């Protein structure tokens, strides 16, 4: 019983944090990123950055200022190509809106190696599921709501994080259903 109560407290705290994240407007997000101390030149000298800023602006609907601040937040010089990361997410069924939210909430994702790190994680998450295979829409829903799941290093930790995220989403949907149909759950 105490673990259930503790889980409930965590659930409430996590839901509060999630609601705060969605309450921020794009301008507030842009100002939060603009205070980054890391400075990356967006000149022609660095491969892929101009295209990435352009892609973030045109395809994902982000403001130029927000896209530039996301690129400044991460160092793209020595890591994987961010364009491959964006293409990989698109190939796994993520919409441009979902990719924009993921990149805004977890800009370090752009520095991951799409082929060696991100691809296997997405395949692992897609293969998860006890009774039924995880569908592409379930994968996109979980990663969109919990983008830092893609930063987890070990398969076991990734599996635990995935199961926790899945339970949070299930509880959130149950709560929304109870809110929409209160008479069904009323005690008689």
What's the SSE pattern? HHHHHHHHHH
Average of the residue pLDDT scores? 68
Oligomerization: single chain
Shape: globular
What does this structure look like?
Keywords: Transcription, Transcription regulation, Transcription termination, Transit peptide. This protein is mostly helical and 188 residues long. The chain has one domain (2-185). It contains ten helices and no strands. The longest helix has 26 residues, at 155-180. The two termini are 25 Å apart. The relative contact order is 0.09.
List the helices and strands and how they pair.
Blueprint: H1 2-23, H2 26-33, H3 49-58, H4 64-73, H5 82-91, H6 96-105, H7 114-127, H8 136-145, H9 155-180, H10 182-185
Helix pairs in contact: 2-4, 3-4, 5-7, 6-8
How would you describe this structure in keywords?
188 residues; mainly alpha; 66% helix; globular; disordered N terminus; transcription regulation; transcription termination; MTERF; transit peptide; nucleic acid binding
Question: TL;DR of this structure?
Answer:
Helices cover 66% and strands 0% of the residues.
């Amino acid at each position: 019983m105490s673990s259930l109560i503790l889980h409930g407290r965590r659930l409430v705290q996590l839901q509060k944090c999630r609601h705060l994240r969605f309450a921020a407007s794009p301008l507030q997000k842009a100002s939060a990123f603009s205070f980054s101390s890391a400075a990356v030149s967006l000149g022609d000298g660095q491969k892929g950055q101009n295209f990435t800023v352009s892609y973030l602006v045109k395809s994902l609907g982000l403001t130029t200022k927000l896209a530039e601040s996301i690129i400044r937040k991460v160092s793209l010089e020595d890591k994987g190509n961010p364009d491959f990361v964006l293409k990989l997410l698109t190939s796994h069924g993520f919409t441009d809106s979902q990719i924009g939210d993921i990149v805004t909430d977890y800009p370090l994702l752009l520095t991951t190696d799409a082929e060696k790190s991100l691809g296997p994680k997405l395949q692992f998450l897609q293969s998860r599921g006890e009774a039924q295979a995880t569908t592409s829409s379930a994968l996109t829903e979980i990663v969109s709501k919990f983008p830092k799941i893609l930063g987890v290093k070990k398969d076991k930790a990734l599996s635990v994080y995935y199961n926790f995220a899945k339970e949070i989403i299930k509880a959130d949907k149950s709560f929304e259903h109870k809110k929409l149909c209160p008479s069904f759950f009323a005690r008689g």
